[in-house]
Write a structure and sequence with these properties.
The chain is an alpha/beta fold. It has helices at residues 4-62, 82-94, 112-128, 145-150, 177-183, 207-219; strands spanning 64-71, 98-107, 134-143, 155-158, 163-165. 52% of the residues lie in helices and 16% in strands. Strands 1, 2, 3, 4 and 5 form a 5-stranded parallel sheet that branches.
């Protein structure tokens, strides 16, 4: 016959073991929840870092150097005219992804007025966008007005065979006074205004008018 006291002790032991097993399962579940939460937190942080890094990479990939071309004679209505070149420069500087601007020049020159328009606009854009450098690259030549425009850049790059320079203004004329005398032709000119008829090739050279023209060229 079994002892009741021993049976009670056995039941207590079983209960303790059962409670211990339950507590162990609870602790294990808590640790699983903790590590699962930690894992998801890690994945979330890494995901945000990758997304942010991807945005930065995309932003860096969007940065570029803008290229503006200025080929040919600098004249109104031409490809190298002020209207076309200035429009290209404005678009280049306005682009938020522009890291720098290159103006490629291949021009023998042309209109001093058109050249001055481009020069002044480059100077203005460089002041307005101080962080964006502008470099000029000269291919075959940048003479006269072409070199005038190039002088507005931060730096000028040329090939050793490029033709560069010759900034200045010229005015061509000729004299046919002696020829007219030989053929018996007399020049008759009626003007209103002191400076009208400047450098008329059929009249003798006037020192005062010549000095006036020279002053005009010097100012240009």
């Amino acid at each position: 016959m079994s002892d009741p006291n021993n049976e009670i002790d056995y039941q207590k032991i079983v209960q303790k073991l059962a409670f211990a097993a339950i507590n162990e399962q609870r602790r294990a579940r808590r640790w699983r929840i903790f590590f699962t939460s930690l894992f998801f937190l890690y994945v979330t942080v890494v995901g945000f870092m990758l997304i942010d890094g991807g945005d930065q990479d995309a932003a860096e990939e969007g940065r570029h150097t803008a290229l503006v071309l200025m080929p040919g004679v600098i004249a109104s209505g031409e490809e190298a005219g002020a209207e076309n070149v200035i429009a290209g420069l404005k678009a280049a500087f306005k682009d938020e992804d522009t890291a720098g601007v290159i103006l490629e020049i291949n021009s023998p020159g042309g209109s001093p007025v058109q050249s001055a328009y481009i020069y002044d606009e480059i100077r203005r854009l460089r002041i307005e966008h101080e962080s964006i450098p502008l470099y000029v690259v000269i291919s075959d030549m940048a003479a006269s007005g072409g070199y005038f425009v190039a002088a507005a850049a931060d730096k000028i790059y040329v090939n050793k065979s490029s033709l560069v320079g010759s900034i200045g203004v010229r005015m061509d004329s000729f004299g046919a006074v002696d020829l007219m005398k030989k053929v018996g032709v007399e020049r008759r000119l009626i003007i209103a205004g002191k400076t009208k008829g400047l450098a008329d090739p059929f009249l003798p050279e006037n020192p005062e008018q010549t000095a006036h023209l020279q002053q005009m060229l010097d100012e240009v």
